[in-house]
Design goal:
The chain is α+β, with helices and mostly antiparallel strands. The chain contains eleven helices and 20 strands. The chain has four domains: about 5-90, no CATH class; about 95-205, Trna Endonuclease, Chain: A, domain 1 (3-Layer(aba) Sandwich); about 215-305 and about 350-375, no CATH class; about 380-440, no CATH class. The strands form seven sheets. A six-stranded mixed sheet has the order 6-9-10-11-12-13, with helices on both faces. Strands 2-1-3 form a three-stranded antiparallel sheet. It has a three-stranded antiparallel sheet with strand order 14-15-18, covered by helices on one side. Residues about 300-315 and about 340-360 have low confidence and may be disordered.
Length: about 450
């Protein structure tokens, strides 16, 4: 990253280590250069070395980055500063990439027709962003499939996903690269990197990532799964999302054709799951609707928003450079591309927090741990008191009313009322408690 750039419109050098970017006569300059790239001219800021010499390290090292710059924050230690980073080079799809995208369109349209869904190839969203295939399910649910085999930026993914959501369309991005921009930034699915002939064929095309299933277990000695925290057992409740092959018992992988029908029918739904270690980070995935409902039931109390307080009434917007330090350094006119730790093009980087353990739980996404099983998840409501608290006369009257032996009278596991619990016709809970349990299972 660089500490400055060249402003191509004003013909001036920008020094990001100063609060006035080196030009006190231009009070709005900082807000102009720190605006998102989609709201300004892409060629507004240029690498200083490229402007002076006609070349820079970004173009010479692989050609993945352009000489055009954008300004972002960089935090090192406890200090946050402005830095200039190279924008990704504009990439036109190759003939092979275009063939694979068209083959995926054909496969999605064929699967939609087989599942009784309507489809539209090359549908536009809001008259601007073009999706590959728009699939409409029997209930009217619309899924916008996009398979960008050519690289796309994170901002493009967010912008097109927002446009789809504003028009009542659920976006679904298909990628063959686990590091692609759509991963965890929008509803996504990853497939194998196949030639267009295989994609267009009727051979199975499995979804390798992006579809997960909920797994919950009480971590006890002898449990089938070892504890993801210590590799042994801890006596607590673990809840996480696993790939089909890592579920117990294992699930068959989801095929792309199956995902087309299941997503349009609402059987597989997109989820945005906050991570327990960092609530500001999320994992995105497609999950069975029953698993989604189970998750919401488990974390109902945690997901309930807090009541608004006085501070929520009139929030004050922070200044554009709030928290930024200005060390006042000399302007560095040498291109530093290649010396950076990573190439950056996203103001909100993707964060993948995975559980780390000794027994393969590294692929458990959004693993949550609780000290005990939430009361609302118990099959039969927990008994408010232990044993049947009645007098001998009350037990005799209950046995007569229940038409059972006096020794067979016991407490309902739900409400504690006297029932025929231990006799040949004995039951675990009374009729009202069993009815409540059955109602919850529907």
């Amino acid at each position: 990253m660089a500490n400055g750039a060249f402003h191509t419109v004003y013909g001036i050098e920008i020094n990001l280590t100063r609060p006035d970017p080196g030009h006190p006569d231009r009070p709005g300059l900082l807000a102009e250069i720190t605006a998102p790239v989609e709201r300004r001219d892409r060629h507004l800021l240029q690498c200083l070395q490229h402007h002076r010499e006609g070349r820079c390290g970004a173009e010479e090292q692989g050609g993945e980055r352009s000489p055009w710059m954008h300004v972002r924050r960089s935090t090192v230690g406890a200090r946050t500063t402005w830095v200039a980073a190279h924008l990704p080079a504009r990439h036109r799809p190759t003939a092979e990439e275009d063939d694979r995208r068209k083959a995926l369109q054909e496969r999605i349209a064929r699967a939609a027709d087989r599942h009784g869904c309507r489809y539209e190839v090359g549908a536009r969203t809001g008259g601007r962003a073009r999706g590959d295939v728009l699939v409409t399910g029997p209930g009217g649910l619309r899924i916008g499939w996009t398979g960008p085999y050519a690289p796309v930026t994170a901002e493009t993914v967010r912008r097109r996903s927002r446009a789809a959501a504003e028009h009542g369309i659920v976006p679904l991005w298909v990628t063959c690269d686990e590091r692609a921009a759509p991963v965890d930034r929008a509803p996504w699915a990853r497939v194998d990197d196949l030639p267009w002939q295989r994609i267009a064929s009727r051979a199975p095309m499995a979804v390798r990532a992006g579809v997960r299933h909920l797994q919950q277990w009480k971590c006890l000695r002898g449990s089938v799964r070892a504890c993801p925290l210590n590799g042994s057992w801890c006596g607590r409740l673990h809840t996480g999302w696993y790939l089909p092959a890592l579920c117990l018992p294992s699930r068959p992988p989801t095929d792309v054709d199956e995902l087309v029908g299941a997503s349009a029918a609402g059987e597989l739904v997109p989820m945005r799951v906050p991570l327990q270690a960092d609530p500001s980070a999320v994992a995105r995935m497609w999950v069975p609707v029953a698993d989604r409902d189970r998750w919401r039931e488990t974390f109902a109390e945690e997901d309930r928003p807090a009541p608004p307080g006085p501070a929520d009434a009139a929030p004050v917007a922070p200044a554009p450079d709030a928290g930024v330090s200005y060390p006042g350094e000399e302007l560095d006119r040498v291109c530093r591309y290649g010396e950076e730790d990573f190439a950056y093009d996203d103001p909100r980087p993707r964060t993948r927090h995975r559980a780390r353990s000794r027994d393969g739980h590294a692929d458990a996404v959004a693993l949550h741990t609780h000290d005990g099983v939430p009361e609302r998840l118990l099959t039969v409501p927990r008994q408010s008191r232990r044993g049947l608290v009645v007098t001998p006369e009350q037990r005799q009257r209950a046995a007569a009313a229940l038409d059972c032996h006096v020794a067979h009278v016991g407490p309902c596991a739900g409400c504690g009322a006297p029932i025929d619990r231990y006799g040949p016709r004995g039951v675990h809970a009374c009729a009202p408690c069993r009815a409540r349990v059955l109602a919850r299972r529907r």
